[in-house]
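Write out the 3D structure for:
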Amino acid sequence: MKFYIGCPIWANKGWIGSLYPAGTKPSEYLRLYSRQLTTVEGNTTFYAVPAQATLQHWVEETPATFRFCPKIPKTISHAGKLMGHLAEATLFLKVMSQLGDRLGPCFLQLPPSYPPSMIDDLREFLAGWPPEAQLAVEVRHPAWFNDRYHAALQDLIASHQMARVIIDTRPIRSLEGDKILHGSVYERLVQARKQKPDLPVVIGPTASFSFLRYIGHPVIEQNTSFLDEWADHLTGWLREGLDAYVFCHCPDERLDPVLCRELHRRVAEKVPISPLPQIKTDSNPAQTRLF
């Protein structure tokens, strides 16, 4: 069992003073990030496929235990039927395979406009995906969560030993912490509620690994019960021998690494996993306590 935890990106200057020491240059972000967290969601590949030199640089900057989980480009996932883009997807995987052992599961995020009526297209695409490459699939059309289609989707994804992406936006739906928020953080929370899917949380694993996207509340205390719940689920899966990939998001992106450490700490109290190192920073006492 292996437990990987990280954020959507590594290039965030807002982490200087907390995750990164003061004076850190952008060229140093990935090296420092990969020595404190163990995976990254890789949202950049949703918009552009990296050049070979870029991938080589990523390999050189990260330890062998680090994992990139690249999102399949939107020119594939958000362009209607998938099968017309299978060759493009295979080429994308071939390019990303240059990461070697650092390549984790790829991440196929389907848009709300991709309904269950297209399940045959999805079935053909998943059958054509190279079986040696791990894939996690996220659906956002609400009908996929109806009883009529849920079991069929679970069975399809499980038949290929792929993971169904678990996305938990419940924390940002909570209104409890709103009264102490103000300014840009409150505005980003409201925007996140509009942009993130408000869908049921599907728990059951379908593969030898799980893939969780946790969307946390910017009032850190509002996450306590949710983090406790996920620590229990993750501990159970790890004990069953599943690997776990977890990505923590927050409307206040400064807190992404905080949520990672809080969840990692909870899991580590229940099951033996590798500790997360912490690089000394110039963060203030409040930030230090959050970590």
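Residues 224-239 form the longest helix (16 residues).
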